[in-house]
């Protein structure tokens, strides 16, 4: 695990090495050991956090004749098997680490080798004789990787701030990314908040040679609708075996490993398998919220007792989060306000004193239909078959329900369902998932700003992505779209940034590529029945975790800003930041529209907490990045 960066462009080797070292300084939190290499026209850098082969494997890495140079972020979990095969074919190794395998596989000239890797990685390889730079990002997009390309200057880095630290990088905001953020609470890739600065897509290679950039896929999610029917028991057995294999792979480490334990199905399943594989007591870490409707600590404690783990807790309340807002916001290079980032930051800060690697449960919901909107797809067609007058009456009644502050309350669920129920499956899902829908977004943005966007409606992203899979299984297509949008650009990005802010590595067993392939071979009707979700995973964990946890409804890691916005410190911040003149001065917001949304929320006629949270964070981000 580490951070990487690099430059390709005209210039002397000494100039490039100096620039690379400035870029490394911008991501110094990602590791503890710097390494840099330069050559006429190119410079590569690495900030390494040693996890495997701790004493050796310094980067950059070279092949036998030093014609290939590599810097990399992440881990290759099956490196021992690859190393044995390569050594048998005559390759000579200089280290005992994992990333050196990639150099020798690359030497053999067959680009299909990327699909042989099992792990999480962002890699840069420079071929000195051919002057060819190759960037590669892991199958799912667990590790981030960005690039900038303009006027003959190519820059890349694990974080955007590394690229921005280069004096040749021109900063110009991307208006469409800002509008998308208001809906999604993150910027969907490959675009970023800056023009000419892009994310390398998951499962892709970027090749720079002779002044041309080519991006090509080596892997993508396949929805295999032709898979022969299997019994529920067989699916459960296969899922259990895949989970064991995935967790075992992610435990490969030469430093201490722990597990983030919420007390929900996903993290408890990982912890149960990890406890079986560990030689000593497993270390588990949990968040305790003082807000009762948001707190899962009774369940995490029960699971920790069941496992006999060495359990640790971090207690959070509104003051702890409020006081840390500037520090945590400073970790993000783009507008970003995924609520779970804030408790995750605090738990990683604490866990760093005990472990260097931590396992987390991201990915199970997007592969096994764990979120409520997926269940909504089952009822959508029946709702739309209902006569229009009945739907209109039901919608009117739903919008008159009292507004609750509780996490994902029934009034909020029903409002989102009836509003999204006006559309087809893909757009309905977007409407159910987002912090602010396209109609609400238009209320708070100026007409001139909207007219200048390349694409005014963010929902189009979801509709296009869902349509890109040729399958009759609508729910699996929506799951695949969420894997490539919400999972990668929101949850995995925050997992990387929050853990690396404390020089930790976070691993995600449910996103082992073999596990993902397995999940998308299962028809969605076998994953979801009524409001019972993740059926194969629940079946697989029978007998491995307590039934009261195995059958629990998903809760999720978040923070209760719906309630906090009513309390003095948060209310003052909200009113100050959303003052009409202040938001209008930024050039994108309609001050009256923002105030109307705030007024509706405070009168209790609508729960706009999620939308107001996005506006608040965008205002603060724009002001801090105006220079």
Low-confidence stretches: none
Mean pLDDT: 92
Measured by DSSP, the beta-strand proportion falls in 15-25%
The chain-level structural class is alpha+beta
Note the gap between the termini.
Answer: 32 Å
Give the number of helices: 27
The whole-angstrom Rg is 24 Å
Helix content: 40-55%
**What's the arrangement of strands in the largest beta sheet?**
2-3-1-9-8-10
Reported for the largest beta sheet, the result is: 6 strands, antiparallel
Please tell me what the overall shape is.
Answer: globular
**Number of separate strands:** 17
Gist?
This protein is an alpha+beta fold and 627 residues long.
Please characterize this protein's 3D structure:
With 627 residues, the chain is an alpha+beta fold. 44% of the residues lie in helices and 15% in strands. The strands form three sheets. A six-stranded antiparallel sheet has the order 2-3-1-9-8-10. α8 links the parallel β14 (283-289) and β15 (310-316). The radius of gyration is 24 Å and the shape is globular. The model has no long low-confidence stretch (mean pLDDT 92).
Topology, pairings included?
Elements: E1 2-8, H1 13-26, E2 33-39, E3 42-48, E4 61-62, E5 68-76, H2 79-88, H3 100-107, E6 119-127, E7 132-137, E8 146-150, E9 153-157, H4 160-164, H5 175-184, E10 197-199, E11 204-209, E12 212-217, H6 232-250, E13 257-260, H7 265-277, E14 283-289, H8 297-307, E15 310-316, H9 318-329, H10 341-351, E16 357-359, H11 364-368, H12 372-385, H13 388-398, H14 410-420, H15 425-433, H16 438-444, H17 447-451, H18 459-467, H19 474-500, E17 505-507, H20 513-519, H21 535-540, H22 547-550, H23 561-564, H24 568-577, H25 580-584, H26 591-603, H27 609-624
Parallel strand pairs: 13-14, 13-16, 14-15, 16-17
Antiparallel strand pairs: 1-3, 1-9, 2-3, 4-5, 5-6, 6-7, 7-11, 8-9, 8-10, 11-12
Helix pairs in contact: 5-27, 6-7, 6-20, 9-10, 10-19, 12-15, 13-14, 14-15, 15-18, 18-19
